[in-house]
Write a structure and sequence with these properties.
By secondary structure, this protein is of the alpha/beta class. The protein folds into two domains: about 45 residues, no CATH class; about 160 residues, no CATH class. Helix content is about 35%, strand content about 25%. It contains five helices and eight strands; from the N terminus they run αββββββααβααβ. It has a four-stranded antiparallel sheet. It has a four-stranded mixed sheet with strand order 5-4-8-7, with helices on one face. The protein is globular, with a radius of gyration of 27 Å.
Length: about 210
């Protein structure tokens, strides 16, 4: 009788231990799921990047989050941010290589003198000690090497898109135009990345340049 009682007590303790482990695992999973932000069914985790806008053209630094290169050209920007419990550093340089030399921006008020100084490209720096000028200055040049065929593009922007961007920019027309041209540059870069690596029956190295945005 005593042996049976002792056995039952041991079984009960073992069951309680398993229950505690199961509950711990359950709450750990729930906590992990709650702490991760799901954007949609394809992106299960994302972290919003919060930062203060800076005026690059005036050379003003906000909060030490970005800094210019000491190079005399002054067009290299280093941006640091924290995500996924890691510190990342972006090396960015002004890049208008996605636009042709005779690029024209046409609005409802006619052609305007479009500045592309707000368009940047770059990459995440992987090394701690890095020559920013050397790492960044060759990006546009390297991208042009080996490109055998360039297709000129004329992009027509839907008026509803422009109105939406204009609203986001609090009605500031110049900022809205900058946002549109930056958006066009991003899509052109993505298209070039895909087509330049595709072999169309022996035709390779296809790239795109925007000649006109209207």
């Amino acid at each position: 009788m005593k042996k049976e009682t002792k056995k039952n007590v041991m079984l009960g303790q073992h069951s309680m231990l398993r229950l505690r482990i199961a509950l711990f695992a359950f709450f750990y999973i729930v906590d992990s799921m709650c702490s991760a932000r799901a954007l949609n069914r394809y992106i299960r985790h994302y972290e919003p990047l919060s930062y203060e806008p800076v005026t690059l053209h005036r050379g003003r630094s906000v909060g030490g989050r970005w800094k210019r290169s000491v190079d005399t050209q002054g067009d290299i920007v280093q941006v640091t941010f924290k995500a996924l419990n890691r510190l990342f550093r972006l090396l960015l340089v002004r890049d208008r290589s996605w636009f042709s030399d005779d690029f024209v921006l046409v609005t409802s008020r006619g052609a305007v003198n479009a500045s592309l100084d707000h368009v940047y490209s770059g990459h995440v720096a992987e090394r701690v000690h890095i020559n920013a000028q050397k790492e960044v200055e060759t990006l546009p040049q390297e991208r042009r090497v080996g490109l055998k065929r360039v297709c000129n593009l004329e992009v027509l922007v839907d008026h509803t898109l422009f109105e939406a961007v204009l609203t986001d920019m609090s009605g500031e027309r110049e900022k809205a135009l900058d946002a549109i041209t930056a958006m066009v540059a991003t899509h052109t870069a993505a298209a070039t990345d895909v087509f330049s690596r595709t072999d169309f029956g022996g035709i390779t190295g296809i790239s795109f340049e925007v000649q006109r945005v209207q």
